[in-house]
What we know:
By secondary structure, the chain is mainly α. The protein is built from eight helices and no strands. Helix 2 packs across helix 8 (185-221), helix 3 packs antiparallel against helix 6 and helix 4 runs antiparallel to helix 8.
Amino acid sequence: MKIKSDWWKILGVVLVLFSLFQGLMGRVPVLPILHETIRNIYYHVPMWFAMVILFVFNAVYSIKYLSSGNEHHDNIAVEAANVGLFLGVLGLLTGMLWAKYTWGEAWSNDPKQNSAAIGMLVYLAYFVLRGSLDEAQKRAKISAVYSVFAFPVMIVLLFILPRLTDSLHPGNGGNPGFNKYDMDNQMRMVFYPAVIGWVLMGVWVMQIRVRLLEITNQLLEN
Length: 222
């Protein structure tokens, strides 16, 4: 019965391991400029997908907390932001590694890179805000309000502003995205499972962190 309820966790592990293996050993098309670095698409992009989903959790459960005052909703919101920020940093680092070998330098002040860094700082400020408030309910309410505004700001930074300016990043500044020219059907058979796998793993880690937080809070209260 436990296995039936945890099927999605097992699926997440299997899909991430599958994408990790294929990223190292699978066949990829011969491409100019990108060459073997196209393998990074199995890691960099799925991490960003998972990050966005977790920030959606953060925003949704912040709204739920504001309407219910339920501490559990605040716990989900904060841990979703924790895991989302971690995945965002991983996405930023894998993007920098990719940029090093395709653009010539890890950080070229590309609008997408700058916007991504600012987006991470927006959510880092969320934790600074929480850490500056001592009273639990006040901390939860103020940070929930902050989250409601932080999410649309992050969406604008990542998906709108880079499209309005010149950018080296695929899919921005008039550049075609990977899906159009560089990814063949065999790569898509790895890429889409990788996205699903990283999202499921991110949600699972969030759940574990929520449980640990609530157990810790109970112990402190007792």
